[in-house]
Amino acid sequence: MGKFLGGIILKLTRLVLAGAVLMTVGILTKGSPNVAQAASSKQILNWTESIELATADASKATDTLSFNVLLNTQEGLYRLDKNGTPKLALAKSANVSKDGLTYTFELRHGAKWSNGDPVVAKDFVYAWQRTLDPKTTSQDAFYLYQVKNAKAINQGKAQADTLGIKADGDYKLTVTLDKPVSYFKKLLAWPLFFPQNQKVVTQYGKDYGTKSENTVSNGPFKLTKWTGTNDSWTLVKNKDYWDQKQVKLSQINESVIKDPQTGLNLYQNHKVDETLLTGTQVPNLKTQADFVARKSSNLTYLDMNQKQVAAFKNKQVRQAISLAINRTALVKNVLQDGSTAPLGFTPVGLGTDPSNGKDFAKETVVKSAVTNNLTKAKQLLKAGYKATNTKHLDLTLTTDDTQEAKSTAEFVQNSLEKLPNVKITIKNLPKVQRLTQQKQGNYQLIITGWQSVFADPINFLDVWEANSAYNTAGWKNAKFDGYLDAAENKYANDPQKRWTALQNAEKLLLNEQATVPLYQATKAQLLNTKVKGIVYNGSGVPYDWKTTYIK
To answer: What does the UniProt entry say about where the protein is found (predicted)?
Structure first.
């Protein structure tokens, strides 16, 4: 996760940032008007994605794209501004107790769902209880564990009505935490914490959020024209949104374009407003006024499934896999889009040392976990073969079917096949299918990713807790879990000791080579210079279009 991961992925997944830009099929027909010109006069944004939309159900979402659609069609207590600072949204006012355990919110009167129902406090209560219900099988439920009794409810050990969220009438909401959480307001700006309309969710049951007809919105836009399987959808302005006067766009047309050259051609022919670039395209375009390089906290990495491949339980084998890969060559010669070789599992930009202001990633480097040394890799693999009674590794490498994913997979394949008796077969899948197989643990090697929800190292490290829904590779370490538990509980009010515990967890993860970090993503794009007001967040859901407009 991104989530994000699964997807980047947020998530998971790779948690891939939203990509290029396109219009609906009708606009592409012969004699159709220029989309960019239409956008200028009609406030229509044409946007493309490199992957399919997986779900419009916040309790089920795991990838960045799904959360991006949810961010723009739903709303919670807060929204993040351009600086990543939480600002009141559905909450008219907020009060936090001195001990940091109780949050009291007064909700805005007059906020409505797109079906006309009022947005009330019980909608938040229902949403959080539904996400934590074990029957919902939400992979992201653990983010709610800061709320009193949330973990016990999610594990089936407590009743839903004991959750630390209460509605006092229609417009007063009280949230009680188990412990102070410094980043809790940022979590409240993430779609997982948004309200849900119980009447609509109940009406559609298991089909809720599987197509646009089975959804309801309370945010700036409404989701339309999505069947659940098609490659295009439209967000239209929600006239029932309480702050609709601030929404300038009338609609956003989104379509899936997986070939970057197709996206570039459409952009250069003024058919689209933005396109994601590959490394081979960047050198000739990076001096243009419409070139944008967006830094992110998205990490792409290689997971080794110990449940499917017994040899991966051996640390020497895992280290050999990592040492065989030259990350610098990957980012400079293959990606070429500004992405950087990782310093560890936690990306740069997710927090600084309370004592000296140094970045977490730069303070916790374990060079052996992210460096390239083919000679050492061969030695370790031979030792690992001997220890595990393995003669060869014939492995399937699962990844997405985007051009970036394919290029990365081919690089990894070529790198690993330099090792003795290693054969790699690449399996490209649409991201939705890749996420499903990853969730099921149905892979041997998989290129995946994680996009932070908020700027704190814990948001990356907790992926590897033993009970994490995203830990599908089977690596577990009690000492690692202990460090995270101390950071979240024992040292919650001691920033320096909490920091040290997180550092210890990161170093242990890397020394054990639980995973293989590949690169920290930068997304190179061309963006129509007439498009203004996009709120971009590199450490969460990337694109907020509430205030976007065409100049």
So the answer is: Cell membrane
CB 7 within 8 A of CB 442: no
In whole angstroms, what is the distance from residue 514 CA to residue 512 CA?
5
* Spans of all domains in the chain: 25-74+215-294+524-550, 78-204, 295-523
Q: Is-same-fold flag (78-204; 295-523)?
A: no
CA-based end-to-end distance of the chain: 34
CA 67 to chain centre: 8
The angle that helices 374-388 and 315-323 make with each other, rounded to 10 degrees, is 160
Ramachandran angles phi, psi of 17, nearest 5°: -65, 155
* Among 533, 545, 549, residue whose Cα is nearest residue 241: 545
Tokens of 98: 């001195």
Local confidence band at 395 (pLDDT 50, 70, 90 cut-offs)? very high
Q: How confident is the model at residue 8 (pLDDT cuts 50, 70, 90)?
A: very low
393-400/445-451 β-pairing: parallel
Q: Is 289 exposed, middle or buried (0-12, 13-18, 19+ CB in 10 A)?
A: exposed
* pLDDT of res. 41: 56
Instruction: Give the angle 295-298-302 at the CA atoms, nearest 5°.
Output: 140
User: Which SS3 state, helix, strand or coil, does residue 296 take?
Assistant: strand
Dist CA 38 CA 83 (whole Å): 31
**One CATH from 3.40.309.10, 3.40.190.10, 3.30.460.40, 1.10.260.40 for 25-74+215-294+524-550:** 3.40.190.10
Within a 10 A sphere around the Cβ of 140, how many other Cβ atoms? 26
Q: Is CATH 3.90.76.10 the right assignment for the domain spanning 78-204?
A: yes
> What is this structure's pTM?
0.82
pLDDT category at 201 given cuts 50, 70, 90 is very high
For the domain spanning 295-523, the CATH number is 3.10.105.10
CB 324 within 8 A of CB 372: yes
Residue-level pLDDT at 215:
98
User: Burial of 98 by CB count in 10 Å (0-12 exposed, 13-18 middle, 19+ buried)?
Assistant: exposed
Residues 6 or more apart whose Cβ sits within 8 Å of residue 85: none
* Residues contacting 296, CB < 8 A, separation 6+: 17, 451, 520, 521, 522, 523, 538, 539, 542
534 and 29 in contact (C-beta within 8 Å)?
A: no
Structure tokens at 366: 């374990």
Q: What angle do CA 496, 499, 501 make, to 5 degrees?
A: 115
pLDDT in tens, 97-121: 999 999 999 999 999 999 999 999 9
User: Cα 491 to the chain's mean position, in Å?
Assistant: 27
Please, what's the b/e burial string for 381-392 (b: 16 or more CB within 10 A of its CB; e: otherwise)? beebbeebebee
- Cβ distance 59 to 196 under 8 Å? yes
